[in-house]
Design goal:
This protein has 76 residues and is mainly alpha-helical. The chain has helices spanning 10-21, 28-54, 62-75.
């Protein structure tokens, strides 16, 4: 695992310490890694949403969509 050295503001350091003291995390590194994972998930979701928005609107009605899903489930 790669090791990094970072500088934190006092409020951020205090928050990290509080997260570890709450027993939700075992170390500051664990908190930071979890925050990075969450940020990466958010980026993934934003990318998917942007792609969907560029795809335009569907001409299908809700009934059409339900029927396609039901057909897929029947054939699965």
């Amino acid at each position: 695992m790669a090791r990094q050295s970072i500088s934190l503001t006092e409020p951020n350091d205090a928050w990290l310490k509080a997260m570890v003291e709450s027993a939700e995390y075992a170390s500051k590194s664990e908190v930071v890694n979890d925050l990075i994972r969450q940020a990466r998930e958010i980026d993934f979701i934003r990318t998917k949403l942007a792609s969907a928005e560029q795809g335009g609107f569907s001409q299908s009605t809700p009934a059409d969509i339900r029927e396609r899903v039901r057909a897929r489930l029947r054939n699965a």
